[in-house]
Amino acid sequence: MLPRSGPPVHEPLPGFLAETVGARQHHRARRRPIVPRSPARSRDVTIPRYRRTVPHDASTAVVAPERRIALDAVFNFRDLGGYPTDDGRRTRWRTLYRADGLHRLTPADVDRVRGLGVRTVIDLRSPGEIEERGRFPVDGGPVRYHHLPILDILWDPEGVPAEPPDDFVAGLYLDMLRSGAGAIADALRILADPASHPAVFHCAAGKDRTGVLAAVVLGLLGVPDAVITDDYALSKEAVVLWLEWIRAQAPDGAAPLDRQPKVFLEADPATMATLLQAIRAEHGSVRGLATSLGVGREVVDGLRRNLLEPA
User: Fold this and answer.
1) Cα angle at 130 between 151 and 213, to 5 degrees?
2) What are the DSSP E strand ranges found in the chain?
3) Which of 140, 149, 257, 278 is most buried, by the most CB atoms less than 10 A from its CB?
4) C-alpha dihedral over 171, 174, 180, 182, to 10 degrees?
């Protein structure tokens, strides 16, 4: 598939590696070494190896054709509706979306997103990324914009081991839950407000920071872990399209992309499964995690009212 057209820009690398060589020369954000805490050692527990156990009907729901929103310069804009829950319900369609960098939206893309009725945009990127690349165009419509950076300081790509252990990325995600606790809690409170919907939350690639928040939201709604991991894995194809687009629109960024560790350019479901297992080992459940973030039952109840189909 050929990359879709869009304005030429310098684009960030997926997730923590959010810089190309060109952008790095004048990016003012500080960086710190990547030293994640292993999920398996967070409370001296053993995290079992991931085994895919998604029921057929749930897997079909994940790949529903209406899930992806086709845009010209944004490649990971997805509807979180239609997922089964542990009480027999499903998540609402056309209510909550996850996405990658909305600063890339073309005018036609903006019209398409506005056509979805989006009222709220939650931007999880760092201040430096927004300063460097811009944000969702809020002019021309009643859209509430919230900047809730999960990472204020970008991870240093030079700190990535040559051969990362299997749980390396999951360890980064677990650290993200700690360092970005306030932003995640605020996002949950916003999404618990019925006036916020339809809403979309996003980062740069729509895989890492967005994937962590999506896992928390879906977990609080009662979506099974196996379905959450499959939702996370849908980012793999989107990242491929995004990288093709970068190579076509910003060829200078191709070389640093090709040098990145393969693990950061994938969306391995085992990574998300390991994170979810670590959350349960440390907090008992995703709801226990929410409690540790200072998110009360009224927020969880609000999320469920807004994002689940009626019983």
Assistant:
1) 40
2) 31-32, 78-79, 96-99, 120-123, 144-147, 154-155, 199-202
3) 278
4) -170
C-alpha–C-alpha distance, residues 44 and 29, integer Å? 34
Residue 51: CB atoms within 10 Å: 8
**How many angstroms separate the CA atoms of 184 and 217, rounded?**
10
Contact 23, 191 (CB under 8 A): no
Alpha carbon distance 260, 244 (integer Å): 15
Q: What is the pLDDT of residues 190-200, one digit of tens each?
A: 999 999 999 99
Q: What pLDDT is stored for residue 23 in this prediction? A: 37
Distance CA 170, CA 38 (A): 8
> CA separation (Å) from 134 to 9, 11, 101, 148, 184?
11, 11, 10, 15, 22
Helices and strands in the chain: count of H runs, count of E runs: 13, 7
Task: Give the global pTM.
Answer: 0.86
Q: What pLDDT band is residue 38 in, cutting at 50, 70 and 90?
A: low
Rounded to 5, what percent of the chain is helix, strand, coil?
Answer: 45, 10, 45
For residue 226, give Cα distances in angstroms to 130, 213, 221, 236, 241.
33, 16, 14, 16, 25
Query: What does residue 73 show for φ and ψ, rounded to 5 degrees?
Result: -130, 10
The amino acid occupying position 242 is W
Q: Is the peptide bond before 198 cis (omega within 30 degrees of 0)?
A: yes
C-beta separation of 229 from 272 below 8 A: yes
C-alpha of 180 from chain center: 13
Q: Work out the angle at residue 71's Cα, subtended by the Cα atoms of residues 65 and 74, and round it to the nearest 5 degrees.
A: 110
115 or 255, higher pLDDT = 115
